[in-house]
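Backbones bend. We report:
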Amino acid sequence: MIYEGTYERLSELLEPHLGEREMAYVRLAYDTAERAHTGQRRDEGFPYIVHPLRVAISLAGELDVYSPEMISAALLHDVIEDSDTTRGQIAEMFGEQVARLVWLLTKLDEVSLPDYLAAIEEAAETGAPIVKLCDRLDNLRFVTHSPKLEKKLRYVRTTEMYYLPMAERTNPYLYEELSRALEATRIHVAALV
């Protein structure tokens, strides 16, 4: 698996499975996310939009998930947290299903991580757990590029405590991939401390 984060790569994965109208829907989600994340950068130095793209690419390329709603939610999963985009605007543009998914994936400061993840798991029929686990997998795969040691340690700790058990209950492939990425991150962190 090549972990490139380009819209062209996502398109290549989706086009054999989606019609023109569905591809236009996904493109609108990408364009919306790109605008919402304009000027934002990840800790590893990449433009922020690369992260939601990689999450969507993981869904299609690793899990064979081609639902335009789930792919769009993956692309939009951080826009409420990181911009002035509202749930209502997402519902208006993409419908209630995507708005609900994005809202479930939005981590509000006043909600604890265990409560946040429990709400996501309770909504398993929406696909939110799969998108969230792909999100964590991407974060874990690239956190080694972050200059922030505390962030790396936090990702190791929260993945062990919450995300790995969630993955074990949700999807064997994601459990294996998270386990692999967690071990690589542990080795990386051990070399730093």
